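During the no-cost extension, the postdoctoral fellow (Dr. R.K.) reprocessed legacy sequence entries with the updated structure-token encoder. One reprocessed record is reproduced below for audit purposes.
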Amino acid sequence: MVEMRSVVGLAVASAVVVTFAVLAARTEARPADPSPHEVFSRKSYKKPDDKQLRKVLSPMQYDVTQRGDTEPPFQNAFWDNHQTGLYVDVVTGEPLFSSTDKFDSGTGWPSFSRPVEPGRVDEHGDLSHGMVRNEVRSHGGGSHLGHVFDDGPAPTHLRYCIDSAALRFVPAARLDAEGYGEYRALFGPVKETAILAGGCFWGMEEILRKIPGVLETEVGYTGGRTQNPSYEAVSAGTTGQAEAVRVVFDPSKLSYADLLEKWFFRMHDPTTRDRQGNDLGTQYRSAIFVTSPEQRRIAEQAKAHAAKSGRWKKPIVTQIADAGAFTRAEEYHQKFLEKHPDGYSCHYLRD
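Re-encoded structure tokens follow.
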């Protein structure tokens, strides 16, 4: 019996040694990133005490980062996020990943091909759930982030499978404001897009394209049921689509809040439902189609400010909705009043 126990003990010990050897080999054999990011910042980050963490983190964020739990796939904040920006540790704010390295892995979790810079993400052996895996944690705070696998895209062939609950997203337009200006070079010239509806898109575009900080505009149709609608179909009023303007602007020169408060809510009458001037129908409704939760927050705030401005005597009926498909209108509609200065418009800036 003693000999049997000794044999079993040796077998178990051997299995453990082999497992750790495999784990070590997997970690050490990983090739270096063939094109690593430069080091943008050497700022260090420190984890708050547990009492503070329980105050500021949601239960899911705490369980993931502090206990190593895993959130459900496809039911998390960033698996399908396509905005440009930086992903930081929700616990410490340490920069971890960039949208430039994010890809769709089909797993239902955010996936990245590499960290934003060397030294920000640490790997640790993970033998849980009967598997040999490489866990990844933030360097500064030790937050559990997820795992890294060797099945990602070139050139790294790595897939950092990360829990959204471990991350906070900083849009590229907010990098300077939130203290991450060193990482701006990752994203090139920063641009933001607004999609606005307020009656006939001819007059809307004519004002919008001349605003300092606006880089480009195009008119089109959005917010309805019909796919790839034509002007004739939208004019019939049965598609649910609105005539709208897609505005690309430089947020360092023109903020989204100023675009709405100083221009959008002055260039049309936001108190007339499904109408501007002589134009009647749902296609002429007042609407802001937001592309992010931050845009929604700013749009709601701008709408409230407009209501309190004293400029309008009736309630503001502007719709705030998530942006969907945007169909570019026919070419003859683009920059219509630039090509036809005497054309129809009911838009002007109110004092």
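The first strand starts at residue 85 and ends at 89. Helices lie at 2-28, 50-56, 59-67, 201-208, 231-235, 256-267, 293-308, 336-339. The remaining legacy entries will be reprocessed before the final report is submitted.
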